[in-house]
Design a protein that fits this description.
single chain; mainly beta; UDP N-Acetylglucosamine Acyltransferase, domain 1; six-stranded parallel beta sheet; 1 helix; Acyltransferase; transferase
């Protein structure tokens, strides 16, 4: 469960999705959170972890007309934002916003952002502190840990690298309403 839930007009949360430990879950107008997702976070008031991050916000924000499809694992310990019209697609992808810092011998967390009109394929992993640029795409099976290298990028691999540029005139980037099913 989330301490605060904000649902925009026509926003949908699918069945059998587990949500726990979040400070806030927000879905913009027309946003979709599909079925069978596992959405978790280490709660903000956890006394044993993340003392060095007093401003940490374990939340999930899904922008207007954006979608997280089905059967994904999303760790919101550091906070996760999915931009307007973005699609976290396919299945079995992961967002992991916290990890172990071996140098400091402690857990660490950082926000993750998926930009507006971005597209994430099946079985991708996005790691803490990463930011997928607006109007960019990441290919299936990729492990992404970059921090916003500019819009209109095509990324793939492990670790993911920018392998090309996307044309600005793709219809996917021009949508004004609705998740593409």
């Amino acid at each position: 469960m989330a301490k605060q839930l904000v649902l925009g007009r026509d926003a949908i949360i699918g069945s059998l999705t587990v949500i726990k430990g979040l400070s806030r879950l927000e879905l913009g107008d027309g946003a979709r959170l599909g079925n069978l997702n596992w959405i978790t976070a280490v709660p903000a008031n956890s006394a044993d972890f993340f003392k060095h991050l007093p401003q940490r916000d374990p939340s999930l924000t899904i922008g207007r007309e954006a979608a997280i499809t089905h059967r994904h694992l999303i760790d919101c310990t550091g906070g996760v934002t999915i931009g307007a019209f973005a699609t976290f697609a396919g299945w079995h992808s992961q967002i992991i916003s916290h990890s172990f810092d071996f140098r400091a011998a402690r857990q660490d967390a950082a926000p993750i952002r998926v930009g507006e009109f971005a597209f994430v394929g099946s079985r991708c992993t996005l790691l803490k502190g990463s930011s997928l640029p607006d109007r960019s795409m990441i290919g299936a099976g990729s492990v992404y840990e970059l921090d916003d290298t500019g819009p209109l990028g095509l990324y793939r691999g492990n670790p993911a690298e920018r392998v090309g540029d996307l044309p600005e005139d793709l219809e996917y980037f021009r949508r004004t309403s609705g998740f593409i099913s």
